[in-house]
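Record type: ASSEMBLY
Status: queued
Input:
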Amino acid sequence: MNGISSSAALQTWKLVIAYDGTDYKGWQVQPGERTIQGEVQSALGRIVGEAPLPQGSGRTDAGVHALAQVASFELATRIPEPNLLRALNGTLPPSIRILEARTVRSTFHARHSSHAKTYEYRIFRGACCPPFLARYVYASRWPMDLEAMNRAAQLFVGTRDFVSFAASDPDLNARTNAEQNNAPNITVKTIFSSLWSEEPSMEGPLLLYRVRGSGFLHHMVRNLVGTMLDVGRGRIAPEAIPEIIAARSRSAAGPTAPAHGLFLHSVEYGEDE
Amino acid sequence: MNGISSSAALQTWKLVIAYDGTDYKGWQVQPGERTIQGEVQSALGRIVGEAPLPQGSGRTDAGVHALAQVASFELATRIPEPNLLRALNGTLPPSIRILEARTVRSTFHARHSSHAKTYEYRIFRGACCPPFLARYVYASRWPMDLEAMNRAAQLFVGTRDFVSFAASDPDLNARTNAEQNNAPNITVKTIFSSLWSEEPSMEGPLLLYRVRGSGFLHHMVRNLVGTMLDVGRGRIAPEAIPEIIAARSRSAAGPTAPAHGLFLHSVEYGEDE
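Status: finished
Output:
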């Protein structure tokens, strides 16, 4: 069944995963909670009888979606790629879909091997948000000066210390401090592109923010978006962005935009990965 | 607040309502269950202090969606139309949206006054159904001969006894028998149009069935669709449709298509209603 056989040597697998994060407590396994990582792990267990913890390219918070999250893990079981793909999609709920499943070089790691990541934030601007979009957009009727928001968005491009936009939760600080022994510049990230665009949709006008970077701090995209929404309604001048960055203080930036408008769009690796 | 005042005379209201039916036990109030009718009724109670039961144009089953369901009820409270619209959308969950709220002639009734209704059924044909569509389509990889399905669809047009496509549940039979004292031809309905079409979407090919008729029996659209899906995969010849209708037996027709692909698309009334 499923072309399964065993071998002593471990094979490294890469999965590309889309998910509707609404009904999950985020990516990371947590006792007693439904999480994406936990669902994929338990599906693997049911299919191949081994349940390695899939390592994601990064955590997504409760309610955040993914168009193409990437995860890696090792299996002793031998199973043809199309068979594992089909078995996972047959086992997982419809809110989690495996888009791709294949074996990769043994040193591949979804987080450590990634070169860049892109996030997308979706805002609905119409008078009444259709119930079929409500889980996947932030519906806001505040005035939004798109030109000012794009001036602000441009000021994030480059290599900077983004600590003003990092979550101030103690959990993150603990993690950050622990990691800082090896990587003192943990809050320094490079943003390659950062742009708002308006896209017409059958359901009404959508405003999309896409940001591509070397990596992102916890809550960073939602804090960038919340700050630019303050710019859009005239509370913060776009020209104030460099000062907010320089302040190196979470309280200098704007609020955290809601999770349900955020999508992990894609993760980039070397060629053929 | 909200421009509310009272009067002895009742005013009749018409609401147009969109909903994501996934998390509800259908339209109709049921003790201990979340239903659309129940949510609208309780929102009215919270806003105006009166909680009449909104009468829908028809019931929708658990999991069925609506792009534009219509409901009517009477209020003694006087409240400007835009204020009730805004207050309802502020009170109801994002999965239920009021698209229109206005006062109408006192004899208006969402069910009795309707001239025609249109339902839409959505099928996803791609290899892997995106999690963001999964609640709103039936994902099926069965072969579908669209030309044969449209030949079958045409054979439903006209005034016919559709009892072969009515749910065989005892509840319906009890209702049907009760109503038959006044309306012996309760299972005779007129279908004005019935058509399958393929629509490209960003997420992959969608197959849509739209049917417009004078009225529909319980499960009728889902049974029409299930029967045409059997036609599409070659199990039933399109030419067999007249025999299936003539059999006047639920067992002559195909299976019931899943609820989550079905949308109440629109309800038609006289001019200015």
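Annotation: Helices of chain B lie at 36-48, 81-91, 146-154, 170-180, 220-232, 241-247.
Annotation: The beta strands of chain B are 11-19, 55-56, 65-75, 96-104, 116-124, 138-139, 158-161, 188-199, 206-213, 262-268.
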